[in-house]
Design goal:
CATH topology of the largest domain: GIY-YIG endonuclease
Strand order of the largest sheet: 3-6-4-5
Number of strands: 6
CATH class of the largest domain: Alpha Beta
Order of helices and strands: HHHHHHHHHHEEEEEHEH
Structural class: alpha+beta
CATH architecture of the largest domain: 3-Layer(aba) Sandwich
CATH superfamily of the largest domain: GIY-YIG endonuclease
Strand content: 5-15%
Largest sheet: 4 strands, antiparallel
Shape: elongated
Distance between the termini: 54 Å
Helix content: 40-55%
Length: 242
């Protein structure tokens, strides 16, 4: 087990270094040193960590894509500790029950900061800072930013800034790509369309792109890549015979 294995497993469990240290009876700086590789994990501590975090060699890398984000794991664990149902947490946070399910299951990989703050307040606890960093890093697009997930039906979550956005259906298939100087205003205009309803549009994600020319280029590339999967988009898609 490497320090990277330990850190990945800890974040996957939604735990802070302090919480892991308390369970294996060491100090928080010791966990930090193990994770950074500054010191080697002693054999007996390796055994305790493996039992506690259910780590096996290679398991973290192979299963990471099936796991919730570090933030999602923290939400699920903390909610269970406080004996709250998903519906109760959603009510306290002022978000939809489906959104909590999506965050805890990993379908929502990187909820917007406003959503994270609502959940932290509802749980009356702050998530480990490195869980947030790891969650954002996992969906970062080099040179652009992080892909952020949001509820397209919640006005207070709509990004009021320039960017490229994608709508997904209930099976997580991307069905529409758009761009706008104000993603919020553009999405509000979609609500008059016959197709803007569940389960046709279930979730959404966007990446912040302020430059108009860059936004339009990214939008065109994504639509062309998606081809017929972008079932709602009509422009930029080259279909057979076109």
């Amino acid at each position: 087990m490497t320090g990277e294995d330990l850190k990945a497993a800890r974040l996957r469990a939604g735990l802070s270094q302090q919480e892991v240290a308390a369970r294996v009876d060491v100090t928080q700086p010791t966990i930090s040193n193990w994770e950074s590789g500054s010191t080697t994990i002693p054999h007996d501590d390796r055994i305790r960590l493996r039992e506690f975090l259910d780590i096996s060699l290679g398991e973290v890398a192979e299963s990471a894509h099936e796991e919730p984000s570090p933030f999602g794991a923290w939400v699920g664990r903390t909610r269970a500790e406080k004996q709250l149902t998903v519906a109760e947490l959603a009510g306290r946070a002022g978000i939809s029950t489906m959104q909590v399910y999506n965050i805890e299951s990993g379908r929502t990989a990187n909820p917007r900061e406003t959503t994270r703050l609502k959940l932290a307040r509802a749980l009356d606890q702050d998530p480990p800072p490195d869980a947030i960093l790891a969650t954002e890093a996992a969906v970062a697009i080099e040179g652009v930013g992080s892909l952020e997930d949001f509820d397209p039906y919640a006005d207070d979550q709509l990004p009021d800034e320039g960017g490229v956005y994608v709508f997904y259906d209930i099976s997580e298939r991307p069905i529409y790509v758009g761009e706008s100087a104000s993603v919020r205003d553009r999405i509000r205009s979609h609500r008059d369309k016959f197709w803007f309803k569940q389960p046709i549009v279930q979730t959404a994600a966007f990446v912040r792109v302020l430059d108009e020319e860059t936004r339009k280029s990214i939008e065109q590339v994504l639509i062309r890549f998606l081809k017929s999967n972008a079932v709602i988009n009509k422009h930029y898609v080259q279909r057979g015979g076109d």
